[in-house]
Backbone:
């Protein structure tokens, strides 16, 4: 009798988990801007996914941004696949700060490093927004500031300080991709933010230009390792963060 009870309880809990997961899009569509986004962009996005043989209910995504070039690239795969492929490239609408990571509140910097989406905001002051988990563990260990700041988003509109503004039209698409991935069970959507496309040639150029800023060059050399791995393998990066904030790639 006890075993039957435990089996039924497990069945209920699993069912509840699946129901909660698959209702994410439905819950988001209760908000007017998300509903409009799906009405205007949904068919276009699902058609793009279909051309890559990716089912909308098995979608995983990964986002890569390049500050200097002003590009945000969106990669997709089926959740059972290992490698991503680029489905779309968007221009970032406005820039904030300069090259180099964000290290404190009020510095106007866009972060650099390896992050994940940690919030969906369907009622954002900037139309729709996806929160980035800055400061991450690396930021906290490297910075000596008392206040590192926060509330960094990929969002609509075309103004921002420290965020990645994409315009209202583009954020509709990016938000839908993220919603579908979340709905498919992707709990952590990676967001990789680089100062520029970190090829060896570009690194030599920037190392010379910023040679007086040794700490910055050391940091860039570290995150370039992640850039080169992703460029070669197109897989989600596996890494740990050392006691000094260094990314250690597996």
Residues:
């Amino acid at each position: 009798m006890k075993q039957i009870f435990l089996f039924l309880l497990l069945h209920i809990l699993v069912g509840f988990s699946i129901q909660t997961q698959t209702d994410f899009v439905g819950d988001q569509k209760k908000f007017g801007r998300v509903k409009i986004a799906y009405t205007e962009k949904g068919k276009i996005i699902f058609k793009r996914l279909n051309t890559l043989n990716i089912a909308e209910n098995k979608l995983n995504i990964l986002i890569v941004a390049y500050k200097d070039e002003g590009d945000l690239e969106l990669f997709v795969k089926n959740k059972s696949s290992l490698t991503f492929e680029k489905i779309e490239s968007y221009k970032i609408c406005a820039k904030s700060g300069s090259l180099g990571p964000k290290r404190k509140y009020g510095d106007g910097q866009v972060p650099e490093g390896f992050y994940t989406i940690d919030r969906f905001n369907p009622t954002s002051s900037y139309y729709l927004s996806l929160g980035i988990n800055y400061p991450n563990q690396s930021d906290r260990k490297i910075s000596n500031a008392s206040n590192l700041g926060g509330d960094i988003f990929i969002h609509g509109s075309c103004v921002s300080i420290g965020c990645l503004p994409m315009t209202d039209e583009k954020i509709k698409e990016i938000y839908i991709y993220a919603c579908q991935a979340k709905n498919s069970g992707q709990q952590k959507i990676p967001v990789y933010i680089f100062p520029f496309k970190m090829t060896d040639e570009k690194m030599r150029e920037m190392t010379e230009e910023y040679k007086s800023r040794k700490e910055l060059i050391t940091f860039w050399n570290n995150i370039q390792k992640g850039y080169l791995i992703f460029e070669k393998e197109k897989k989600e990066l596996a890494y740990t963060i050392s006691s000094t904030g260094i990314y250690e790639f597996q």
